[in-house]
Amino acid sequence: MPVQAEMTHSYLAFFAYRLFENEQSEMGRDDVTLLHREFERRFEIALDFRSIQADLVACGILIVTSDIIKFKYKYIYYYFVASWIRDHISTDPVREVIARLSHSVYIEENANILLFLAHLSKDPLIVGELLKAARSYYPETAPARLDNDMDFLLALRPGERRVEYRETDVDVERKQLLEALDEQEAASDGDDTITDMSSSDPSSDLLDPLVMLTAAVKTIEILGQVLKNFPGSLDGNVKLEIADACYALGLRALNEIYDDFRQNKDEILDEMIVILQQQSSGLADDQAKMRAYNIVVALAEAIGLTLVRTIASAVGSKELSQTYKRVLGEDPTPAHHLIDTSITLDHAPDFPENSVRRLAQQLKNKKNVFAQAILAYCVVYHFHVFPVDPVVKQRVCRVLGITYAPVIGANENRKLLSESTRGGGYNPNSVAKTIAETE
Q1: CB-based contact 135:245 (threshold 8 Å)
Q2: Does 77 fall in a domain?
């Protein structure tokens, strides 16, 4: 990094971290003037106050008015806070901050700072604190197997349900996905408020099931970022520990949700039947019951698909195939197979027909109807966002029992989604590159 760029980077990190410490999104001009002088004294360097701010405004990093100065976009603020933490990670106050952030990722600002820190550093302290946090969520809950632990749903299934795939234009689907991600990011950047789901005590906050689930998902995403950013420098056993923790946490969260279904399924069904009959006054009891059963099973399948896809998206990378094999081990559960297959679907250069067929046959032999449905939905998702030969689609749909409605004249000559669009939220690699270019 050129000398001038290095000084500017340090200046912005100093400013961002002071905002973070003070829980501010902006700073008054008088306070910034004092901060500027403090920076010059601390680092024994002279910087022209007006010149540096004018340059940072011109390149779209800062907003300066007659009253305040702030970062133009929140993701730039997150990046520079993370930069300061990385550069001062040996100090006790910063190490305490990392521990605090790791155990309160249900707060949006904390999660995003750690997401960028995971891009910038693989320091053992960061990994250790995140792993400690991951193991603290749902400690008494076993990971979901998606095997005989789902037998309680079989009693609710009055008849066979078929997964449907109605072919659509992949270009349109991909465009809509990218637009949704852009809107999500723009909405976050346009809001200067801190999303605070917290009290002063994280142990109290985590008593809320939604806060706990948010913390679990964010922890999986951040650990996955560390795993994917440093595949060539993290020790193999560390990569295994991170991946295994992500699988286990996601599946514990899933089983915790299913436990609520198991314990309250009768009440859920009764309430669903009442709602259905209120909406359709002529609906017979048997019909209402059948519809309620199907809705509950469909909801359970949707939740299962969501958690499987969340884990796969968080840890998935074409460079980590050996790690995934070690996570599967000698006796993998159907849940582990589904995550592994979802990762393969996202990153294999061609549709992995043979591995999908093998897993489908294994699940069919064990009469695992629930896991078969999750596999079918994973494949349907893939068909919607990646181009696959229609002949292959037909063969796979027959094997998985998917109802296939092709579209006439579809253009199958399309490119795959780029690596950066396979997950949601900020892409720290792209952000870091953009910031480097502006400096």
Answers
A1: yes
A2: no
207 class by beta-carbon count within 10 Å (0-12 exposed, 13-18 middle, 19+ buried): exposed
Are 239 and 323 contacting, i.e. CB atoms less than 8 angstroms apart? yes
Distance CA 392, CA 389 (A): 5
Task: Please state, in angstroms and rounded to a whole number, the distance separating the CA atoms of residues 330 and 178.
Answer: 38
All residues at 6 or more sequence positions from 332 whose CB lies less than 8 Å from its CB, including other chains = 340
Report yes or no: 137 and 213 within 8 Å, Cβ to Cβ: no
Residues 227, 368: one domain? yes
Instruction: Evaluate if pTM is beyond 0.90.
Output: no
φ, ψ of residue 79 in degrees (nearest 5): -60, -45
Cα 140 to chain centroid distance, Å, stands at 24
Q: Is residue 132 part of a domain?
A: no
Beta pairing class for 164-166 and 403-405: parallel
Number of structural domains, the chain?
2
| 356 within domain boundaries | yes
Residue 397 maps to a domain: yes
pLDDT digits (tens, 9 = 90+) for 14-40: 999 999 999 999 999 999 999 999 999
Find the domain containing 66 and state its range: 1-72
Which residue type does 112 have? Answer: N
What does the alpha-carbon distance between residue 348 and residue 368 come to, in Å, rounded to a whole number?
26
The CA distance from 182 to 194, in Å, is 20
Terminal CA-CA length for the chain: 9
Residue 39 sits in the same domain as residue 179: no
List pLDDT tens digits, range 302-345. Answer: 999 999 999 999 999 999 999 999 999 988 999 999 999 999 99
Q: Which residue has the tokens 């930069």?
A: 83
- Where among 72, 95, 128 does a domain terminate? 72
65/168 same-domain check: no
71 beta partners:
62
